[in-house]
Amino acid sequence: MRYDSVRSITLKDVLLFMTVVVLLGSLQGCSSPDREKPRATAPPGGVLLRGAGATFPSILYKQWFATYQNDHPKTSIIYDAVGSGEGILRFIGSNIKDEDKVDFGASDAAMNDDEISLVPKGVVLLPMTAGSVVLAYNLPDFKGDLKLSRKAYAAIFLGEIKNWNDPLIAKTNPGVKLPKLTINTVVRQDRSGTTYAFTKHLDAIDEKWHSRYGAEILVAWPDNAMRAKGNEGVAGLIKHAAGSIGYVSYEFAHQLGLKLATLENREGKFVAPTEQSCTAALATAEMPENLRVFIADPVGPESYPIVTFSWILLYKDYEDAAKAKTIRDLFQWCLQDGQKYAAQLGYVRLPANVIAKALSALNTISEGEKR
C-alpha cells in the first residue's frame, strides 16, 4: 500500500517533469539563433576551434577547455555536447550547415571504417579519456545496496523483468525487502556513444539481446522505456521517476547523487563502479595501431563490467597551419597535463601506454598552407 501510494504520486511528478521538458524545448526552438548558439569569433591574432559530440566526456572537456583557454588567451574553444552520433555527422560534414561545421568531433563509439571513408581529409582517432557506464536507479525507501546479475539487468532492458520484486532480482539481494513497484527503464532517444558502450556489453553477455538488437548507437527500445536526450537528460529523469533504472555515464549520476547498482562481472563477482575497478577493466585492453578498441566484457575479478574509452576525432590534414598547430598543442595538453583532472570529475586517467600511442598519432596531423 505504501509503495502504491508513492507510485501514484511520482507518476504525476514524472508527467509534470516531462511537460516542463517539452515546454523548455519549445521555448528553445522559438529562441533566436543568437540565443541558441553564440557567434564566437577568434581572439585577435588567435584561433577559434569548434567541436561537437559525446555528452559522456563533456564535464571533463568543459574543465579542460576552460583551463586551457585561461592559460592560452589566443585560443578560443567551443564544444557542443550533442551526442556521439551527431558529433560524427558534423565531423564528416556532409549536408551540414556552415554554423554546425567543426574542427574536431568527439565520440564514445569512435568511428567505423565506413564513416572514416566519407572524410576526404583523413581521420585520426585519439582516445582522450575513459569511464564507466552505470545503472542508476530510484527506489523510494530502499536501504540496501542493489546487486544485479548479468541475467537480471539484461532482462530488465529487454523488457522481460517488469517489477522490482522479481525473483531474479531477489535472488542476488537476499534479506533485502524489494518493493512491489513497476520498473521504468530510462534510455537515450538520441544517437549515443553511451548507448553503444552499454549495448556492446549486452551484446556480449546475452544471446537474446544479441539476436534482437546487437550493439547500436540508437535502439528501438521496448515500449515501456522512458526516453531522454543526453546523459544529463537520462540522469535527470531517473532522479524524478520513482521505480526507474537507466544507463548513464558515472559522472552525471554522481553529480545528482543517484544510487548505483553493483553489477556482476565476467568472473561472477559483484563490483561497484570505482576508479580502481574501471582502471582494472581498462588494463585488460590491448590498444591496436588505429587506437580503436572496445572492451565489451572485461576479464578479471576486480573489473567493473561496463567501461569505455572516449575519442576525439581529428582530420589528418588541416588547410590552416595555425589551426593545425593549435589542435596539436591543445590535445597534447589534454593527454598530458589535463589527465590530472580526470579522477576528480569521475573519469579514469588514461594508462601511460595509451597516452604514448595517442601522442604519436597526434603528431601525424599535417599543416597545410595558412589561408
Provide key terms for this protein.
9-stranded mixed β-sheet; 371 residues; 39% helix; 14 strands; disordered N terminus
Outline:
With 371 residues, the chain is of the alpha/beta class. It has 14 helices and 14 strands.
Question: C-alpha Rg, in Å?
Answer: 21 Å
The secondary-structure class comes to alpha/beta
What's the CATH first level of the largest domain?
Alpha Beta
Our estimate of the beta-strand percent is 15-25%
**Uncertain residue segments:** 1-38
- What's the helical proportion of residues? 25-40%
The number of helical segments is 14
Would you kindly provide a written description of the structure presented here, covering whatever features stand out?
The protein folds into 2 domains: 2-21 and 132-282, D-Maltodextrin-Binding Protein, domain 2 (3-Layer(aba) Sandwich), CATH 3.40.190.10; 45-131 and 306-367, Periplasmic binding protein-like II (D-Maltodextrin-Binding Protein, domain 2). It contains 14 helices and 14 strands. With 371 residues, it is α/β, with parallel strands linked by helices. The chain has helices at residues 2-30, 33-36, 58-71, 84-92, 113-116, 150-158, 167-171, 193-205, 207-212, 230-240, 250-255, 275-282, 321-335, 352-362; strands spanning 47-53, 75-81, 104-107, 123-137, 147-148, 184-188, 226-228, 244-249, 259-260, 262-264, 270-271, 307-315, 317-318, 366-367.
